[in-house]
Design goal:
Distance between the termini: 48 Å
Number of strands: 20
Strand content: 35-45%
Amino acid sequence: MAILATINQVNGVSIAWEESNYHGASIRPDAHSATRHAQINGGLFKEFAQAMCGWSVYDSTNHVFNRFLPEPHPTYDWMVVREVEFVRELAVPTDGGPLGSIKYDTIECAVNYEAVPGVQYLEDFVKPAGMTHEGWRYLMFDEQFALAARIIPRGQLVLTANPGPGTVILPEPGVAMEATSTWTIKFLQVPAVVNSSGVPTLPGSLEANINSVVGHVNNATFLGRPPRTLFCCAPKRELKMMSNGLLCFDLTFTLEVRGNSDTTGIANGTGSELMAWDRMRFTDGLFYRVYRKDQAQTVSIYREATFTDLFKLT
């Protein structure tokens, strides 16, 4: 048996354990999992599970997250611990448990690993230089097909009938269907701060920063997407519990995509085949920039925001 110790420390101490099964794994094209069996002190199951699964802490002084990562598998290092479960007792029981309950000095646990595609579990010390937000790790991405209806201005569509009345201008605006997509970003394990009323809230200025982005389009390239091609919807919040027994949120941001190209350099009044949130299709089939009647033509019809503020704590 191999005598090991957890990478994470609980109360300043790594938890020692012995391994009795190393090679249990299941790998297929769409899912990877592995299981190792650990023998540990029966009184340290809570600490062992916490250390193996990892947790996160909000540093209110420096306004950053301290991440204690889930342990990676030593061979399949793209898998991380997702569960620790009790298997069996391995020693003679005693009455040394709480309130005289039964205690086993040694127990066996199954440590289950899974691949979490796309999520980067990165240590605090590898934070990129100059980074002012938490959007460089613990993010999960997904993109799905969507169909958008874009208005064609009133009076720009004509109906022809032959034989019949001839050319008739349609009295109502038309609609053109555009193939597009919906992008979701899940911001994982955001530590919750419980306020004086006992309500879990987001840490630091994260709540205000998210509100400043919702309902806006991106003012700069965001995770590879050009300006004014993303519209941010209100996030979904899932309250969860971390391995240390404290609360956290998983935040899911839905971003509606319109186009994949930067249209910043296209002059006002110039049509283009490139779609963006501030452009509308005209009768010639091209997209033109649209602006508010009481605003300068440099002002987008949609208000713009800095999308990295979705992950900013200050």
